[in-house]
């Protein structure tokens, strides 16, 4: 029992050291992770997106306390008459910033601000296109593996030093003539230690099993190869093509819709070759933009050498795009409710789509992620015809013009109420 207590005390020292060293790496990553999860959909460090660029944000506000108030509840700051906040609100189209009260606390906001302050500056564009972007990303890479290796090495050194100390103590006692106890059983052969290790392994296995089971069906960062290398960075970013030009259903219905081949051909009957910046895929391979346009012509059944004459539509076929965002069958999601009524920017769910060559699933699309958004997103009640319709019925009931409201009056006979 004494040996077991000695082992537990030594194990506690080692475990504390490991946790201390590991935590320093985790804390260093907190600000970046929080920024990516809460800010990156609307803000970048060095360029304007839905909101302003955030590098140097502390220089533009009087104090961190003011930034805390703005992030937690921007509406309250605007009502207080803060001049800078109101100018910012007017400058960016009077779009209210999401209130993060209940989602972030002041310590987490400070971690984000520390990350913004210490994030590496972007490298100047030297014409290398994707190579420059890759090098810039490398500067801010995650060092968790490096810190993990150092932690393991130091833990091994500590165990060796503990064992050396024990052996030296035994030698000193023997030299001093003190009575020697029977040679103790090595710690790794003791039943109590073996039971302890089995419990640790069992708990670790259970944790990993539960964590992976919870993650079933979650495909964040899923980035499949598509039949045509379609760059949103070129179309939505460089050429500023509005998302709704291709995804025509996003304002009118549940589905955003995948554009038909003829929508692509509206432009590419005239644009027959790619002359923009070099294209690279996520692996760094060069992409021939003109060859990708030729693939589009093959799907459209179009012969560019004939300048559109004798276009054989019978050879046309739909492009077999691989679906990226896929919700379970029991989940109802309507794009028009979010984009048109809720005025939610595309980047909120899809990330900086205008900077993506190959599209990936940016958000986790989990129930918790959606609920957190619903908890903080404000409803646009003002000048909203949907809600004013219900106000009308309340007024008519009070005046006696009607005695009740039927399901038909609130759209109960619309097909999509039951069939979606």
From TrEMBL:
Gene3D superfamilies: Cytochrome c-like domain, Cytochrome C3. Residues 26-120 form the Cytochrome c domain. Residues 1-28 form the signal peptide. The chain crosses the membrane at residues 145-164, 193-214. It holds the Pfam family Cytochrom_C. Keywords: Electron transport, Heme, Iron, Membrane, Metal-binding, Signal, Transmembrane, Transmembrane helix, Transport. InterPro entries: Cyt_c-like_dom (IPR009056), Cyt_c-like_dom_sf (IPR036909), Cyt_c_III_dom (IPR020942), Multihaem_cyt_sf (IPR036280). GO terms for molecular function: electron transfer activity; heme binding; metal ion binding. PANTHER family: CYTOCHROME C7-LIKE DOMAIN-CONTAINING PROTEIN, LIPOPROTEIN CYTOCHROME C. This is C-type cytochrome. It comes from Rhizosphaericola mali.
